[in-house]
Amino acid sequence: MTGSPVRGLGRVVNSLRHGGIPVTAAKAIRRVDVIRRSRWRQTHQVASLEVAPPEVPRAVVAVIAHWRNLDTAGQTRSADERSAILTQVVESLIDLEAHTVTVVVLSNDAATAARELAARLRSEVASVRVARRRSEVFSHPASRRDIVALQWRPGLVHRHGYYLTWGHVPVLRRATRTGRYTHFLYLEDDTHFTPGHLRYWCTYRAPLAEHSLIPGFVRVERDGGDLYLVDESAPIPSTRPRMAVECPDQGTVNFIAMPNAYQGMYVLDAPLAIEHFRFSAARSPLSSRTVRWGVRERAAIGPIFDDVPSGLWSCNVVPVHEDAAGMHLDPACLIEHLGAVYVNQKHLAFGTIPVGAAFEGPVDVTVAPSLGSTPTEPTQPAGS
After folding, report:
1. Crossing angle for the helix pair 270-279 and 168-178, to the nearest 10 degrees
2. H/E element holding 141?
């Protein structure tokens, strides 16, 4: 007797829920996706990362993953602190320099999130409405500023709260199909994305696309007046390969790939989004298992592991500058992780490297024609 079908189905569901699907399955899916994408590009005559000249974003949709803890015991932040941080993140997104901005707060308690946001947001900011289903998010006529609290519901397999972070994928996919938006964002609820960050990303998007690269970000935390790297546990050697890219208005700019590619967020424009939600390994929890990060960290991968140039592990790069004092990260790529989680936990390796001391050793004056070298698997990120 082989056992009942119901019991067998239960074992399959339990295996899926607890990560029983092997990484080899994700790799097989990835190989198929590469073939599908190649054929799709031939049909649609689309080149890798093809983009139009830089443009001012006309319409932006941003999805924020916001988990509300029913039990705050042992949490590093109180419910009031988390609500204040979320408000700061939403207000910064509302200020993005685009004609239309839609902010979707994806939460396991959308009603409470909407109520607390409405009470905290400055008076001139748009009101907050609650959507019980994804279909309700974009059912209203587009307004210049729209804030929606969307209720997340666990699925049959992915029931753990960590999978709330993956709920943004179908929302952004639906947004691409509306034809309303030019840019798409996903971020965690403590990531302070500002108008300056969007300007930075749009400035370097087209020049880097010629090299199959995209503008990246470096998470930092603030301790008093100082900034610290969140996702690096040691200084970066100044000999790390860097590539010179010709950029309109900026001239020649040097870029490097950070040792840890994790950003906790991502940005897409319409050309990137068209392929991303069709073929990217980061479009589902299963296919993303080619990267051995946690569930929440993989949800924030976005396009950084898509179409990666030979010799690199990821295609997100950041600008650097050199002077007599050494090498420095361009401040434009620094994105603040609000709440100072890591700098306040001195026993952790993360959050200990000052931004001003991000690089160590003498600067290698040689600028490589590309960033390619022997790729290494990305280090485990600090976490969400």
Report:
1. 130
2. none
Average pLDDT over residues 345-356: 86
309 membership: H or E segment, kind and range: none
The answer to whether the CB of 307 falls within 8 A of the CB of 212 is yes
| Closest C-alpha to 137, from 100, 106, 182 | 106
Question: Which structure tokens are listed for 269?
Answer: 């424009």
Is the residue at 3 inside a domain? no
Look at residues 196, 171, 197 and name the one whose alpha carbon lies nearest to residue 184: 171
Closest CA relative to residue 264, chosen from 286, 236, 293, 235: 293
Please give the structure tokens belonging to residue 32.
């198929």
Tokens of 285: 């929890």
| Residue 38 placed within a domain | no
Are residues 319 and 332 in contact, defined by beta-carbon separation less than 8 angstroms?
Answer: yes
SS3 (DSSP) at 202 = helix
Give the full edge-to-edge strand order of the sheet including 191-192: 191-192, 334-337, 218-223, 226-229, 353-354
Residue 110 lies in a domain: yes
> Does 329 map to a domain?
yes
C-alpha distances in Å from residue 92, one per residue of 34, 87, 190, 280: 37, 9, 12, 28
- Comparing CA positions, the residue from 268, 239, 257 lying closest to residue 49 is 268
Bridge partner list, 334: 218
Supply the range of the domain harboring residue 318: 59-358
Overall number of domains in the chain:
1
Q: Which residues contact residue 221 at a Cβ distance below 8 angstroms, ignoring those fewer than 6 apart?
A: 227, 228, 230, 336, 337, 339, 340, 341, 342, 343, 351
Residue 370, burial from CB neighbour count under 10 angstroms (0-12, 13-18, 19+): middle
* Residues 6+ positions from 16 with CB-CB distance below 8 Å: 157
Question: In this structure, what CATH number is given to the domain that contains residue 92?
Answer: 3.90.550
Strand (E) or helix (H) holding 164: none
Statement: residue 345 has pLDDT above 90 = no
* Percent of the chain with pLDDT strictly greater than 90: 54
**Weakest-pLDDT range from 70-79, 185-194, 337-346, 360-369:** 70-79
